[in-house]
Design goal:
Blueprint lengths: L1 H22 L2 H6 L4 H9 L7 H8 L2 H15 L5 H6 L1
Helix pairs in contact: 1-4, 1-5
């Protein structure tokens, strides 16, 4: 069961980071997630950076990622309304 929990945790992390990355404009991707100064600062702390999703993971706390993705969903019109769900 421990392996399953690790896999689901990784997948959740990956999906949230990917949504945030995709919702970021190309210019902001370069400034934020592709910024080599940020990468070097994280590497200097002994963190492993293989790509922009790692930067998102290290820079945003879990609750912050959840709130950002909730805001993206709301802006995209994917906000779930319990009344609408109950009707369907």
């Amino acid at each position: 069961m421990k392996v399953y929990n690790k896999i689901t945790t990784f997948l959740r992390w990956f999906i949230l980071a990917f949504i945030i990355y995709q919702a970021t404009t190309e210019d902001d991707r370069k400034k934020l997630w592709g910024n080599k100064a940020i990468w070097n600062a994280l590497l200097a702390q002994g963190l492993q950076i293989m790509g922009p999703l790692d930067v998102i993971d290290y820079c945003l706390k879990a609750g912050e990622k959840d709130r950002v993705v909730d805001a993206i969903d709301k802006l995209s019109g994917y906000e779930s309304d319990l009344e609408e769900v109950a009707k369907n």
